[in-house]
Amino acid sequence: MKLFKRIIFVFIVAMSFIGLVSCENKQGDPSCAHEYTLSVTYATCTKNGEIVKTCTKCGRVETEKTSPTGHNYVSGVCTDCGDRQ
Question: Which residue range forms the structural domain that includes residue 28?
């Protein structure tokens, strides 16, 4: 289950990145062909994650919050963080 959650998360990040490459720059030159670096803080069972995208050419910054993954209880124990029901 943990691997599945990470695969979905990486897919969402990749799709977001692809969609942003051709957007207009709101901070400067609208002809900037953005090249983003990503900083990712992964979501946990109970806390949001965050994706920060920064254009290396013009400095444009975009931030996205990701939802907590939720607990995955098996026999009363979360397989991701060890929390007990």
Answer: 2-78
Report yes or no on whether pTM surpasses 0.90: no
Are 32 and 15 spatial neighbours (Cβ–Cβ below 8 Å)? no
Q: What is the pLDDT of residues 5-53, one digit of tens each?
A: 676 666 676 666 555 554 544 555 677 888 999 999 999 999 999 999 9
Structural domain contains residue 32? yes
Q: CB–CB of 14/20 below 8 Å?
A: no
Total structural domains within the chain: 1
Rounded to whole angstroms, what are the CA distances from 76 to 1, 27, 72? Answer: 16, 50, 9
Spell out where 1-85 has E strands. 36-41, 49-55, 61-66, 73-74, 77-78
The residue type of 64 is E
